[in-house]
């Protein structure tokens, strides 16, 4: 009863995706979750399935994961609200237009479709954008989902294949093949996947940093927006490691609501909304879409992305041969969940992975420590 | 008793005569159309009538999500079911 082939700590979208992959492969799976499955970072984010190209390894994982989402598309229940909206990276000026062309070349080399929009084309795609923008890059196959229901779907699929959800107690310690829960009971498993997001109880030394973000959601304004829009300046601001920043990032929901982001704050672990940065974020959005100022937002919340020093997740084995990581996805946990789950399942089943798993191996942490002296 | 003064509001495109002083949600109810449609398309109308339940939202003079139970009709006002 308390022995598993794979025991997953954390039932966020990453843990649930891992559970589904492993259970479908015939492994006996347990999932430990102290709170509500999908109730942490999974519930706080936007649910943008996006190919990102900060680094070749990030591009490879996001492209691969997006292709896995596309395979799932037809079987996802309507509650997941998968919509093939496409992303438009918005270029404000000619300097950013140069980035649009560079980005298109990178995407093309990875086999990712994208279309350059000029000033007139972006205005016709998104009439509510302010006039006079230089253009943008449309990535038509990027999509939007509602992440908590996606996690619930993965979990339900896993449970249909025999996975067991163990609710109510947190894992506080792991030893070789053994997990100790906060009530003192133990579970045994050949493999343990740590997918606890920001919770570093098990490996407190693991280099992970919380980055606080704000989101606002409006009332329903159907047809105000067609694509997910992100300003190209987002890439510049998101790269800053130490400063707080905001960027224009807006998403249409199936309900007609608009989800407005984004902010990044460092060293702020308070969950309360921060009015100063929220104002800055909404002003930034109104600067790109002036009509937003007349719409009503009905709710604001915060969440924490969990980032690694090199901005790539930890996926794979640790020095304890029974302990595996699936952590540190920063803003890309929703996008990358299926890819991370597949890479781990490949490892467990001795299958050849479709993409090179080495850039995400946690063993690079030791190397990073050496590199930093 | 003198007949109360009336005014005209346009509800879903139809000119409708209402007593001066009527709240918009009452005019919508009298016109027999829903204030708004839910996400699944179900018709909704004023429930609490005191600005709390938000079921009476409609588009008034082009502005969506107006709580019509808190608005008094003006002559020439346009009112539309919120979709």
Automatic annotation (TrEMBL), chain A:
One of its GO terms (molecular function) is oxidoreductase activity. The keyword Oxidoreductase applies. Residues 5-346 form the FAD dependent oxidoreductase domain. It comes from the Bacteria. InterPro entries: FAD-dep_OxRdtase, FAD/NAD-bd_sf. Keywords: Oxidoreductase. Pfam families: DAO. GO terms for cellular component: cytoplasm. This is D-amino acid oxidase.
């Amino acid at each position: 009863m308390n022995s598993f082939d794979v025991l997953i700590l954390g039932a966020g979208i990453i843990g649930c995706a891992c559970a589904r992959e492993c259970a479908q492969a015939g492994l006996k799976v347990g999932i430990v979750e102290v709170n509500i499955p999908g109730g942490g970072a999974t519930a706080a984010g936007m649910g943008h399935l996006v190919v990102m190209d900060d680094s070749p390894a990030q591009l490879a994982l996001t492209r691969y994961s997006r292709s896995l989402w596309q395979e799932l598309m037809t079987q996802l229940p309507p509650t997941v609200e998968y919509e093939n909206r496409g992303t438009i990276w918005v270029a404000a000026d000619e300097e950013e237009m140069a980035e649009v062309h560079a980005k298109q070349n990178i995407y093309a080399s990875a086999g990712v479709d994208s279309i350059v929009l000029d000033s007139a084309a972006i205005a016709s795609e998104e009439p509510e954008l302010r006039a006079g923008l230089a253009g943008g890059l449309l990535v038509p196959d990027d999509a939007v989902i509602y992440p908590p229901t996606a996690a619930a779907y993965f979990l339900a699929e896993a449970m249909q294949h025999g996975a067991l959800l163990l609710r109510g107690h947190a894992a506080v310690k792991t030893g070789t093949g053994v997990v100790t829960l906060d009530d003192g009971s133990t579970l045994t498993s050949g493999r343990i996947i740590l997918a606890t997001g920001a919770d570093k109880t098990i490996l407190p030394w693991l280099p992970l940093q919380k980055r606080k973000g704000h989101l606002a959601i409006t009332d329903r304004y159907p047809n105000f927006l067609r694509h997910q829009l992100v300003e190209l300046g987002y890439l510049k601001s998101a790269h800053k490691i130490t400063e707080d920043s905001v960027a224009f990032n807006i998403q249409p929901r199936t309900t007609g609501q608009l989800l407005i982001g984004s902010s990044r704050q460092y060293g702020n672990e308070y969950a309360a909304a921060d009015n100063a940065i929220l104002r800055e974020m909404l002003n930034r959005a109104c600067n790109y879409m002036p009509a937003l100022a007349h719409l009503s937002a009905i709710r604001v919340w915060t969440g924490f992305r969990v980032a690694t020093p090199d901005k790539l997740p930890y996926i794979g084995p640790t020095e304890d041969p029974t302990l595996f990581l699936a952590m540190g996805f920063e803003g890309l946990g929703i996008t990358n969940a299926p890819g991370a789950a597949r890479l781990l399942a490949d490892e467990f089943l001795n299958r050849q992975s479709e993409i090179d798993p080495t850039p995400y191996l946690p063993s690079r942490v030791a190397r990073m420590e050496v590199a930093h002296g | 008793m003198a007949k109360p003064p009336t005014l005209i509001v346009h509800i879903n495109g139809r000119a409708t005569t209402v007593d001066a002083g009527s709240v918009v949600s009452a005019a919508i109810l009298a016109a027999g159309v829903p204030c708004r449609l839910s996400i699944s398309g179900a018709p909704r109308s004023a429930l609490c009538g005191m600005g709390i339940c938000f079921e009476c939202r409609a588009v008034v003079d082009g502005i969506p999500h107006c709580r019509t139970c808190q608005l008094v009709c003006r002559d020439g006002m346009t009112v539309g079911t919120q979709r």
